[in-house]
Write a structure and sequence with these properties.
Structural class: mainly alpha
Number of strands: 0
Radius of gyration: 17 Å
Order of helices and strands: HHHH
Shape: elongated
Number of domains: 1
Helix content: over 70%
Number of helices: 4
Strand content: under 5%
Distance between the termini: 19 Å
Largest sheet: none
Length: 81
């Protein structure tokens, strides 16, 4: 369960980074997409639907963290007895 929790944390970190990169580039013209080379960011900027995929994955990972966190707490409480 802790491995799943760590994986969800990684998914949240990556998706937040991608989504904020799109927002920063689109609205304020700054962020990671302005600092990386064009051959790296070109893929992301050519596919703007990826920002919605990142947002969906972020929401799904945050929802999944709730039952995983509860299960981890339950297991920890059982092992302490």
């Amino acid at each position: 369960m802790k491995a799943i929790d760590l994986t969800l944390n990684a998914v949240i970190a990556v998706t937040v980074t991608a989504f904020l990169a799109y927002l920063g580039f689109h609205f304020w013209d700054f962020g990671i997409f302005t600092t990386l080379p064009a051959d790296i960011t070109g893929f992301f900027l050519d596919n703007p639907s990826l920002q919605y995929i990142a947002l969906g994955m972020l929401v799904a990972a945050m929802i999944a963290k709730v039952p995983v966190g509860r299960r981890i707490k339950t297991r920890d409480a059982e092992t302490r007895r």
